[in-house]
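From the methods appendix. Each design record in this collection lists the tokenized structure first, followed by the designed amino acid sequence. Records were kept in a plain field format so they could be parsed without special tools. The example shown here is representative of the layout used throughout.

RECORD:
FOLD TOKENS (198 positions):
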């Protein structure tokens, strides 16, 4: 298996000298997933807001990169603490009502409480998806069940757009619509290893 990973890495370096990288993820059933990442542009700077210190504090306490939280807040509410969506999402991090109830939120429009709970929620999703930021974002937007089903960003246009927008701010770019392709391994009776996709 180390040979396969080495060959995949070599192939990536030959095929994309601009910085694409082949990565692997091992699932609980023993299957190995190979996927590539693309080179990204420089991160754009977000404007300073009156919530920056609050975002920094909540993110540090929750163990999440403050810049990621700021990117999420930018995309979710554009730093409007009173924002309420047609779907009922509330506040800076646009907490859904079920999420607010789960975390026992008293006032979802209170910026400090909204950030505390939003950070806790994204931290739990990062933990669930092995710190894969794109998958955690997809789960934040579409629900963890949809992401766990395929272990990929689900093919829902609004979710793909959301992940791409946040990741463009956070990592400088990338297209996450079809970034992960599952590869499966089969060992024949003669010991031949076959790698294939479905």
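DESIGN:
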């Amino acid at each position: 298996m180390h040979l396969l990973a080495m060959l995949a890495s070599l192939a990536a370096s030959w095929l994309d000298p601009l910085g694409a990288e082949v990565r692997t993820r091992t699932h609980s059933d023993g299957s190995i997933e190979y996927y590539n990442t693309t080179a990204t542009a420089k991160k754009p700077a977000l404007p300073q807001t009156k919530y920056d210190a609050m975002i920094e504090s909540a993110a540090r306490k929750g163990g999440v990169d403050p810049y990621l939280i700021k990117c999420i807040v930018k995309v979710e509410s554009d730093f409007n603490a009173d924002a309420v969506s047609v779907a009922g999402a509330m506040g800076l991090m646009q907490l859904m009502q079920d999420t607010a109830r789960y975390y026992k939120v008293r006032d979802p429009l209170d910026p400090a409480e909204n950030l505390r709970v939003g950070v806790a929620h994204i931290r739990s999703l990062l933990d669930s998806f092995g710190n894969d930021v794109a998958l955690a974002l997809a789960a934040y937007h579409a629900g963890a069940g949809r992401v766990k089903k395929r272990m990929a960003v689900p093919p829902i246009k609004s979710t793909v757009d959301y992940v791409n927008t946040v990741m463009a701010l956070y990592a400088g770019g990338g297209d996450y619509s079809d970034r992960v392709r599952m590869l499966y391994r089969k060992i024949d009776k003669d010991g031949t290893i076959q790698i294939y996709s479905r």
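APPENDIX NOTE: The chain has a mean pLDDT of 82.
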